[in-house]
Fold each of these.
Amino acid sequence: MREKIQAYNNVLELIGNTPLVKLNTIMEGFPGNYYAKIESFNPGHSTKDRIALYIIEEAERKGILKPGSTIIETTSGNTGFSLAMVSIIKGYECILAVSSKSSKDKIAMLKNMGAKVYVCPAHVSADDPRSYYEVAKKLHEEIKGSVYINQYFNDSNIDAHYNSMGPEIWEQTGGELTHFVACCGTGGTISGTARYLKEQNSDVRVLGIDAYGSVLKKYHETKEFDSNEIYPYRIEGLGKNLIPTATDFDVIDKFEKVNDEDSAHTARELARKEGMFLGYTSGAAIQGIKQLAEQGEFTEDSNVIVILPDHGSRYMSKVYSDDWMMEQGFFDSKHEVDASKVEFVK
């Protein structure tokens, strides 16, 4: 008799349970042990799969989402892709307001996943009617039966990671981790995971990575929103020009800021040294860990877990493009273009 076919019912069953992989070469010379939670192993290639599925299924349980509903969201790209993927399987329409800072690769992916995409100017204030926050709100008001996910101000964003990422990391490390590191955008990933981990062991140090040009680090330290901190930067999905309620600042011990250039080169370094072809924010996360290590944050006994949020395929026109890197002025005497990797046979 033939064995029963071993298959998943749909791609949503593949969300979560992503691997933890030791970082071997990129952190050489720094004390401690470093492990990456590689979220590109999710079917939508990012950590945002977790919140997309959790928030939509919570809305279904509460009767907020019904057959024929339209899902609306603001996104730098990854949440939008995950929402579009879940919408396909569950039969919802999906409309996304996207920052113009998002790579062309991400926008093309969203369109090809069946979403209607509104591309909004990145460098405007959060309350500007052209901002992707305000565009999403307006669409929600205009479209009957729509549901606005509102990840920045949705407690389910935190709950999604409390119920999945936190338990996974605790089990994968046997509770032996000493530090948890994650980039902070909406704040859901770091907040939900940190809440769970600190409930298991209050001594776990939680370190958030922020961007220069974002208000999060200063708000964490002073509880004051300082608009003077805000200026344009290039990293997608990291930092904010507002204070999301999906960030629980009380469970974060410290923030470290990183810049565009170093983060871009560190993303490339991850590919070259660890064989991990990951996103811009993953480069930012590792850059932040390097800076923290240089400040003496870690010891030989440290077990550091870092979330690497998405896949490098979404940044082919950005950090993995020599032309884009040159346009940004990211190649200099410290970082030179390596033209030796490609030769044309005539």
Note: The CA atoms of residues 24 and 152 lie 34 Å apart.
Amino acid sequence: MMRFLLTGGSACGKSSYAEKLARRLPAPHYYLAAMQPFGEESLARIARHQKQRAGMGFQTIERYTDIVGVDLPERGTLLLECLCNLTANELYDEAGAGQQALAAILRGVARLEAQCEHIVVVTNDVGSDGAEYDNMVLEYIDVLGELNRRLAAQYDHVYELCCGLPCVLKGELW
């Protein structure tokens, strides 16, 4: 099993790179979409991502919380897009795990890994801008930062995307 963690800032090319990388790995290809459709901005972003991956052969699974409950039909390659949305959903959605978000997401990712041959996880670089935030945002940054650290420690390949280009933080460019 190869495990990839892709991070970077907003709109840096993570999604496009993740899709191309996942398609280079064995089929079937699953796309676990965690962005909830709230408002015009998220609907537009979801539509853009759907159009971007149209015809690529991904089987899309929409799951906003409780990823431990996802059952893949067969082993293949899973693209989890993205850890940032999943974290916010688990922390703040009524159906989420709330204060147990970190543990719930780690259990879910481990269960997904057990069901697939390869996994590509997309996340964001948060908390490095030095800005001051309210307690709710700080909680989100802390949980996502801990998830990122734990997955980076476990995963074979960790890339930071900048201007659509992968910078290898761990492993080798694949």
Note: DSSP finds five helices and seven strands in the chain.
Amino acid sequence: MKYPKYLQPRGTIGFVAPSFGCAIEPYRTAFDNAQKKWKALGYQLALGPNCYMGTGIGISNTPQACGAELTEYYCSADNDVLISCGGGELMCETIDYVDFEKIKKANPKWYMGYSDNTNLTFLLATLCDTASIYGPCAAAFGMEPWHESLQDAYALLCGKKEMVCGYDLWEKNSLKDEEHPLLPYHVTEPRKLRMFGTKETALEIEGRLLGGCMDCLVTLLGTRYDQTAEFAERYKEDGIIWYLEACELNVMGIRRAIWQMKRAEWFSHVKGFLVGRPLIHGQEMMGLDQYHAVCDLLEEFGVPMIMDLDIGHLAPMMPIVNGGYASIKVEGNDVCIRYMQK
């Protein structure tokens, strides 16, 4: 696994928009403020041509333009790390125009984003053996003040932190809107982990992290970009710790996604599952809830399943080094992830 160089003082942060750009509020004002904050920290900025675009369908621009921007900025020596402007809907169309062979040969670079950005963070690992960060997008860094999770993501980019832990409270209902674009997370709900597949209340597992947003993962499954089973086999000595979360999938959709990934043999050599709170939280349909949607199909693997973690769409999120080797320690309601460059 290739680990990129960390962001250095006075380095250059690149911004790209392979999914949504920051074309509308509250994202535009938040992104503008994020740039001010990065500059105040002493960094140079390099904005891709699509960062403020909103002419595409489900993405910032045409798939061709988005793919060209992503390839150029990833391979460019004029920026040191990349942060995606936002998530979106159809980044899967962008990747048809990304030159993964060129990216694979380039010097590895940290790329950070989540949700629709699974289309790159996941493929950087499985196609290019390169670690990335499943974490906040650019506009989130415009909030005043930064939440601890943003400080963690920043520290991870800079190589100043090797461990992140869960946060005490999470946001059920955001207060951010067009008139209040810089509000911080409205955290009101206490974190409460749920553990399945083990009777232990304290455990520690080590392995290589892989995953992302299930909405995107099942779109990639079975395509020419799907080399997931090969990745699991390549790193079988480490074992795979899957981290998963859902955006628009209801509990039935989550169960279908788990079934599909399982039948595609993605979960070979699995050592554990980390499951974030789904955006549609607390839903029940025909007797099925978000827990049984996952656990009923995964219990046969005989590994721990830790659910309702700070991963994904219900903020805050622990930044995850996708493709990275890590030790996950859970004790009661506390969870910490320690990253190791292996």
Note: The mean pLDDT is 97.
